[in-house]
Amino acid sequence: MESLQGLDTRLLVDLLRDRINPSRSLGQHYLVDEEVIERTMRLTEEFDSPLSSNSHVLEVGPGPGSLTLELLRSHSNVTAIEIDKQSVEHLERIFGERKCTLILEEADAVSERWPEGITHVISNLPYQISSPIVDRITKYHHSEPIQLSILLVQEEFAHRMAMFSAPYDIGPLGLNLWLDFDVSLDRRVSPSSFSPSPRVQSRLVVLKPAIRPEAEGTNKQLFRIITRHCFSNRRRKMRTLLSKPPSRISRVSGWHRERWSKSVTKLLSSKSLDLEDGWADLRPENLEPIDWITIVAEISSE
User: Fold this and answer.
1) Is the pLDDT assigned to residue 102 strictly greater than 80?
2) What is the pLDDT of residues 266-280, one digit of tens each?
3) Which CATH number fits domain 9-210: 2.120.10.30, 3.90.550.10, 3.40.50.150, 3.40.50.300?
4) Does domain 220-300 have CATH number 2.60.40?
5) Does the global pTM surpass 0.90?
6) Which residues make Cβ contacts (< 8 Å) with residue 284, sequence separation at least 6?
7) Nearest by Cα to 201 from 161, 156, 166
């Protein structure tokens, strides 16, 4: 079998672009900047989770395989999930007869069952599926801990993941990630690093598992539903937002509208909460993550 020698980023992208026109609907912007790929690989070492033959990396949307190539050169076991049939055929032509540890699946990574034993998720994510993929990473991590995730996403989305600038970037995305991860923003990536170029800046983001003693015992499903409910009308005050049950509250085991109303009434009348006075008259973006832990815990206690 052939080795991976003789392949490089530009060649892989050119070979694919000779056969297809990238699809805007699929968010196909192929990474051609080797410095960004090298930076991605270095981050695994900087965050104390270097890749090796014991690693199992999930890559979502490999496209031409430019990032895939470097993952394979690290001797990692790589599962790449690609929805585009022509991209899959291209990847099979490139890697099918070469000596490497690649499992290629033609599927939708948003709905496809992910393999067991993933240690890393490393991907240049199509912008339009960034949110559901991050959600899947979180849910997967709850059952099978992931050592490290490195994602290349739209910069605005990255800011919301890291809750970079208050109050604008504070929201359910960052709050729910905070429960499980330290989120670090790394290099900004310009449109010229892709072919074809997107119209926005991108950013490398690292998710490193975090231990949050203050969040221990939190009903994470309830936390997710409450934060999404409150930020759906972020200009309203907490008192008004909590007075109405979330539309999906019945999806949480043991919960219904009557229990919600009883719990919120107790919450709003309590004088012994570890919350700033007047918190109920604040807007969601003005609360700290630990405040949300307290609110969810108090609601859950009823």
Assistant:
1) yes
2) 999 887 777 888 899
3) 3.40.50.150
4) no
5) yes
6) 170, 227, 230, 231, 234, 238, 241
7) 156
